Task: inverse folding
């Protein structure tokens, strides 16, 4: 923890992430505007005191839409990645510990899913499941499932051979308690790094799908739908696309720096040299 | 994949005929495309076709055109943009990674590292618009929309494909730079490099023969892993820049509920990834005599 604080970039990333979280939790509540109600007296108004980020073609306050939209994007991504971490993580653990043909089948499925370009898989799943918010989370979960399964399996295979795990086996602890108490805590850190990275990429997937019109459906805001709106009148009102793009980059920057920081802390050898 | 697709949502008949279609028209559409046959029969027709490269015909977006033809006409464009992006990303990262590793801790290293973090924080579709705004509409250097196929004119394709390729390449370049920098710094302090230095070899000779060669193995491995993202990136970017490639085709098919086309596109991407992975493995083996 002390090394983490000493790492200025990681701290910066943590601060940005905290700021983004605070903004999406408290922001929509502070805003006097509605994210979906049109105001035809203020169409495409440039940034001003009343509308710091301007308004869009329906006269909706862009800052309010970004705050609500970021909340949607972030929740979708977090839900998807956590689901993947939970399912993939347990699948990997079980397959490392139990082995046998179930494990072999599980890992082949993971390999197959892993070979698809993520965005292609996301697009495919959206067609299968139907467009909409819940299904984006489900496809993010399916995209990340193989990654977490592989990661936790590979690490668990190593930890499994450690003397303290074998001692626990000899002491007659149940499989469940060995997995939970002896193995999981020792592979948790890389899983956290992957979760942070996954959330960042999940936001990109959500935004990309919604940007194309295959994800969150208008008038509901998400970072992707706001950017898709902004693209329509980019020449006349560049602030809509630009500011929503900056918002997404800030969120991603925070998460990327944070995951870099956690990784550096875990690997002191590398940190000393970089 | 086939069953998952059919179990899915939405009816291609509704997409082709509109929401107001009569039940008779829908039934006729189903009959015409064989959608009224039992699933097992449909699956057999699809599988037996797919194995010999026949994916059937497009139902809604290009009614009646064989999907294999659609893919064949668009595959060169996607391959061109993908390869172009890969070349750009490799060139940027070789330069930036080497410079920041050799000058690590200095200002230029911090600048390159910060650029790399910013690069991975910019989704490709957002970067596309920044590029369009700055280089196409602002400076007027490149076209903002449209693509000339390399089959027609290679020079025109390189020119009209530059912005889409750059948009796909930027996040890749950032990821490659980071891994190359780390790998180079790791290698710079290894014993064999110190020995070579103490023996009086010149810096450039040591760098090319002892450092770069060792650092290339993780670098090439990461390139192989990132090709999946690169191909995924082409989907959105093709759509934004109007490049008639597989990605744009897949998005159109997704909107048109053209199941067979979506499936065929996904399969094509999968096959490309598998081929690239094979090439990367071969290259890694060649670079590392111990693994051979």
Result:
């Amino acid at each position: 923890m002390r090394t983490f604080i000493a790492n200025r970039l990681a701290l910066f990333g943590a601060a940005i992430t905290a700021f983004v979280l605070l903004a999406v939790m408290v922001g929509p509540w502070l805003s006097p505007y509605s994210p979906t109600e049109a105001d035809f007296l203020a169409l495409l108004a440039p940034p001003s005191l009343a509308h710091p980020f301007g308004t869009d073609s329906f006269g909706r306050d862009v800052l309010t839409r970004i705050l609500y939209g970021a909340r949607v994007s972030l929740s979708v991504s977090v839900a998807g990645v956590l689901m993947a971490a939970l399912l993939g993580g347990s699948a990997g653990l079980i397959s490392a510990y139990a082995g046998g043909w179930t494990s072999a089948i599980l890992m082949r499925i993971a390999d197959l899913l892993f070979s698809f370009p993520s965005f292609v898989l996301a697009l495919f799943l959206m067609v299968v499941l139907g467009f909409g918010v819940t299904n984006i989370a489900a496809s993010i979960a399916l995209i990340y499932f193989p990654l977490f399964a592989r990661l936790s399996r590979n690490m668990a295979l190593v930890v499994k051979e450690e003397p303290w795990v074998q001692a626990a086996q000899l002491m007659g602890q149940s499989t469940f308690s060995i997995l939970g108490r002896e193995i999981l805590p020792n592979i948790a850190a890389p899983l956290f790094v992957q979760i942070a990275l996954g959330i960042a990429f999940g936001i990109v997937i959500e935004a990309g799908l919604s940007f194309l019109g295959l994800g969150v459906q208008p008038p509901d805001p998400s970072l992707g739908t706001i950017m898709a709106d902004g693209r329509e009148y980019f020449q006349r009102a560049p602030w809509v696309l630009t500011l929503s793009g900056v918002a997404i980059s800030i969120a991603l920057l925070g998460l990327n720096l944070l995951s870099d920081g956690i990784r550096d802390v875990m690997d002191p050898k590398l940190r000393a040299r970089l | 994949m086939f069953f998952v697709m059919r179990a899915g949502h939405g009816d291609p008949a509704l997409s082709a005929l509109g929401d107001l279609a009569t039940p008779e028209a829908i039934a006729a559409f189903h009959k015409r495309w064989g959608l009224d046959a039992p699933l097992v029969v449909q699956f057999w027709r699809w599988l037996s076709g797919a194995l010999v490269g026949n994916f059937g015909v497009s139902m809604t977006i290009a009614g009646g055109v064989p999907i294999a033809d659609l893919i064949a006409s668009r595959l060169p464009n996607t391959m061109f943009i993908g390869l172009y992006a890969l070349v750009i990303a490799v060139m940027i990262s070789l330069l930036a990674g080497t410079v920041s590793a050799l000058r690590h801790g200095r200002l230029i290293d911090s600048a390159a590292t910060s650029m790399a973090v910013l690069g991975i924080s910019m989704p490709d579709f957002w970067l596309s618009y920044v590029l369009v705004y700055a280089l196409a509409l602002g400076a007027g250097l490149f076209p903002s929309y449209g693509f000339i196929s390399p089959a027609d004119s290679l020079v025109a394709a390189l020119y009209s494909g530059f912005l889409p390729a750059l948009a796909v390449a930027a996040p890749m370049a950032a990821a490659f730079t980071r891994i190359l920098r780390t790998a180079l710094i790791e290698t710079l302090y290894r014993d064999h490099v110190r020995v070579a230095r103490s023996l009086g070899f010149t810096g450039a000779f040591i760098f090319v023969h002892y450092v770069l060669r060792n650092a290339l193995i993780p670098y090439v491995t990461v390139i192989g892993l990132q090709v999946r993202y690169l191909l995924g990136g082409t989907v959105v970017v093709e759509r934004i820049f109007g490049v008639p490639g597989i990605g744009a085709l897949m998005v159109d098919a997704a909107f048109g509920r053209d199941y067979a086309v979506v499936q065929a596109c996904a399969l094509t991407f999968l096959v490309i990834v598998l081929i690239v992975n094979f090439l990367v493995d071969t290259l890694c083996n060649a670079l590392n005599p111990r693994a051979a």
